[in-house]
Amino acid sequence: MSAEERRESVIRAAITEFARGGYSATSTEAIAKRVGVSQPYLFRLFPGKQAIFLAAVERCLTETRKVFAEAAEGLEGEAAVRAMAAAYQRLIVEDPDKLQLQMHAYAAVASADASGDREVGDAVRAAWLEMWDETHLALGADDKATATFWAFGMLINTLASLGFPAGHRVWSGVYDEARPTA
Predict the structure, then answer these.
(1) Is a pLDDT exceeding 70 seen at residue 182?
(2) How far is it, in rounded angstroms, from Cα 110 to Cα 56?
């Protein structure tokens, strides 16, 4: 396997490990073990744990951004909102690590910022802002529509993370396309 293929394997493994344990509780040893490499080899691919975490978060947000873009392609307004909501619901059901890593990333930013480390927050905010900008354009650059879309998105993240089942009353008012089906 080439170094680039190994690097890709590390990012995929890191998404899973950080989604399960968050930044602080995830060891580079666990990531190396999942990939089947030694820790020293891991550090030949990435300079440290923070770089691995940021690569995993960036990949997660990039893939989520791609899901939104593909869903909204050729659509406008409400049709784009509903298509992106449905696509996101499928994403977090089919790949729950994406949702969990997002939630851990937001907590890691708050923790890092509180300790004076701006690098994590700056990187995650930049990746998240790219996602916001693309959905903003897909929604006709309408500030209110974009804010509403993201408000519902964060509600969906919270409800899904808390494990509220489909049909629970807390899902009422959320776009039908964004509600869990089972």
Answers:
(1) no
(2) 17
